[in-house]
Amino acid sequence: MSDEDAVEEAEELESLDEIETSAETPEADLLPRDREEDDYLQKARATFASNPFPVLLLSERMRIEFANEACERLFTDYYRLSGNLFSDAFGKALGAGVLHELYGSVHSREKGYSWKGLIRSKTRGSGTVLTKAYLFPLYSVGSRSPSNYIAFFDDVTTENKNLLRSVFLSLLEASKLKDNDTGKHIQRVNLYARRFAEILYDQFGYQSIDRDFIEDIGFLASMHDVGKIGTPDDILNKEGPLAEWEWSIMQEHTKNGAYILSTYPNPMAREIALNHHERWDGTGYPFKIENSMIPLSARIVSIADVYDALRMKRSYKEAFDHATAIENVKEWSGSHFDPALVDVFERIDGEFEKIYEENAD
Ligand SMILES: [Fe+2]
Ligand SMILES: [Fe+2]
Predict the structure, then answer these.
(1) Could you confirm whether 228 is annotated as catalytic?
(2) What angle do CA 149, 150, 152 make, to 5 degrees?
């Protein structure tokens, strides 16, 4: 984290504290209520207890009084709900700015004492859950301002992911019309890269790998050559060696890919397309960056892509067997590839072989 980020985060946390301390003390919520209010809350609890939609009941002070089963299940890896202030549970995910807006909105008559927005919750082990959230006021008999709030959540994680992916899958289909690599090749690169990331997840020194990273690389690795959509056919399909000027046009597929994938919300898409031909010793392309300057995702995809290319028959070479492909990868440890990753690769090379055999062309 840069210094600036750290300062920003500290400031954000401070302002979250302000919100929490500006709310009434927890004791205020525990003052005896009148019977009528108890009845009304009990009815609300009973109504939503086994409802399949995730629901929270909040006090006037935004303390979570009740979370139904569906809601506990949805957020079980992310927050402790019941008894907590709403800001304690969701504050960090929303950020100080949105939380201020939310609190302003649920206390504003003009805004109907309501709020709606998106909450992105994340942990290393469980990845991201994206939910739409709707907060509405509840009124006890005779009351003119909200005596409680109710929150509904709609889990849109899968919907959102599928929509996004379908757009990029069409792009991948379009690029396959030009590139002579097979659909199976890109499928296998996804599988190797995903497995690689799963192994690294448990290793010391790879804290940046979380569940999202594993999911994402298992989809985005296949996009590494999407930029070839912009490479002229006669260069792409040329038999025999490329002239220098042709080679420099060929290399552009990395930058083109990064450009095409720049609208993908996760920067990993761009990183893989741009850097999958960079080499550990700085002799790759397009920018000759080296070592850990090359994003980890691209270092992983680079090994997966080359191993698979070695196994395949190409116009300029025969297909290598697994043992020969492994020898080549090992030989390029420290020059082409990150040596720490090659060490891991050697430990799981049998899994690579299995993926190749099970998904052969
Ligand atoms: Fe490439
Ligand atoms: Fe490839």
Answers:
(1) yes
(2) 150
